[in-house]
Amino acid sequence: MTTATRPTGYAGTLALTALTPIVWGSTYAVTTEFLPPERPLFTALMRALPAGLVLLALTRVLPRGIWLGRAAVLGVLNIGAFFPLLFLAAYRLPGGVAGVLGAVAPMIALGFAAVLLAEAPTRRKVIAGVIGVFGVALVVLRGNAELDTIGVIAGLAGAASMSAGTVLTKKWGRPDGVGPLAMTGWQLTAGGLFILPLALLLEGAPPALDGAAIGGYLYLGIIGTAVAYWLWFRGISRVPATSVAFLGLLSPMSAAVIGWIALGQALTPLQILGLVIALAGTVLGQIPARPAPEPVAPESMSAAEGAQASVAVK
After folding, report:
1. What mean pLDDT is reported for the chain?
2. Which of 46, 58, 116, 136 gets the most CB atoms within 10 Å of its CB?
């Protein structure tokens, strides 16, 4: 990629990847309006496993060797653990507290990237993370919000799970000849198989589904999961993991806008201000750090500079 085309390609990749959290923001509206109530594990299962099996059938590529374990780990972190924890937090934390906990994910990703990728967190990205959390809090928090210990733990654990999965996906990359679509299928299938026994054990037999529920699950499985995660993993392979993590701030913002447009939920001036602040944090998190200046090669130094350097060394 040439210097002239790189910014355009980078911006295009970010724009496509940003579609994922925007689509994820529609999950709340679809769940509340079309899906059976009080079935978070079944909903998580229906999002992950059918989509994963379809992608496996389309790509016809299975993980081998070390990638059997890696696909399982990534599938649990990005799907199998994240989905149930996300729904558990949403059910137990009214008033948008779950959304604020989810907005902490970029800050957690900065920590994982420092340990696993040796990417030291920059001051700009730390500030962007704080701004993002503050903006999301203005959008989703209400004065009657209540804290639930289990819900808070689930929300933070879900954010940590997704952040670790994002960073490990960047660290491990993909096997030679395997595209992001196949990787998405591996992770969705592994995550779905992890959720399956939990759903059967804790929620029992699947509920009866009407036409609206079937349509809702098809939307979540195809658009909200298969396509969305393909774009997400594609983005992780092309841009820094922490930049992708900051795009997750768009999800609660998208949910608020969809609720306003589709469900008739009013947006207060304070919420609109929060949207602007959260968007600013998202954009700030995309700005790369300035590269350190390269040392001047000795051959490029003038005779006088060389003499001065020699004296300085002595």
Report:
1. 84
2. 136
